[in-house]
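Course assignment 3, question 2. Fill in each field.
Student: A.L.
Task: Predict the tertiary structure for the chain below.
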Amino acid sequence: MTFTLEVNTDQWRAHIHTVSATVKSVTGESIVPVIKGNGYGLGQARLARESNALASEVVAVGTVFELDEVLAHSNADVVVLEPFEPRDLLAGDVWWDIAQKWDAHRVIRTISSTSGLAALSAGAGSVRVLLEARTSMHRFGFSEAELIRVLADPVTRAALETTRLQLCGLSLHLPLEQSANEEPVPGEAAVTARVREVQRWHGLWQTESAKLGTEVDQTLWLSHLNDTEYAQLQGSNRRVQIKARIGTRLWLGERSALTVHGT
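Answer field:
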């Protein structure tokens, strides 16, 4: 049996433009469309071109192996969600090939380990990076103590001062399921546990990056929050610079526009 996906393109495009506009209204920034795997069944090249119509400044891919196709069809910068791992020799070969391209400056790497940060700090040229924090989702990333330590490391600071590393912000993947809310902070509006977690990381990021002696992008790159939570972050007295990465909700959120036929 084979399956065919039929897309009502008018309805589908109306949906993705609505999601994009809503995200911009609550974050103040353009949406970061996630284009990973097989493009959510729709194809990476197609989604890259649709992202151009959304006027997205940045898109996201899952791995370095997905970069070529998206770079070819997108006008945006591209962030790779899978952390850079210097021990991965197969990925390392692809990273080397990407670095030789004329548009390599469009690529942003995610760093989640001291070994990854050290390898890039010691390399040649200049690379754009995000530091990934280990949230309550318990995936990869720096713990609070590790983040403080790497930002204080003289090698990291030297790499930032010489622009060997161009730090584009802090990356946070929050839990897909909302955890039980903690007790609200006296004097502050009630917000979700995910929002409070973002606020804690934001405070740490601001405090520690201010000690670097060089200007650092304060942007938080966030995944798995809803529009209400983005509005809560921007409505607090600690306004946050946000890049919202959205995939499933953007591309597959209007189920009535998608019909599968089996033959």
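Instructor remarks: The chain has ten helices and ten strands. The chain has one domain: 3-174+191-254.
Grade: pending
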